Amino acid sequence: MNARQSQSPVGLCEGCAHASRITSNRGSTFYFCKQAAVDPHYPRYPRLPVLRCEAYQPLSSEPAAGEDKQLP
Ligand code: SF4
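That is the input. Now the predicted structure with iron/sulfur cluster docked in place:
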């Protein structure tokens, strides 16, 4: 397994192809994890910052073949 790590305030979701950024009417920002739709082990709204996630996929990249997925 190759866990990805991040030091940003939001964490890995900020630059993940599986993330959708949602801003509420009150201005709060949430990150919706689309991976939750295909793997129930992932929360729809991960607790931030996500510092380690096996399903992390950088924007504009393809998933690595055979890469395992694990809870963030
Ligand atoms: S797959 Fe991981 S890094 Fe990507 S949006 Fe979901 S929880 Fe965040």
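Residues 12-13, 16, 18-19, 33, 35, 42, 46, 50, 53, 55-56, 72 surround iron/sulfur cluster (CB under 6 Å).
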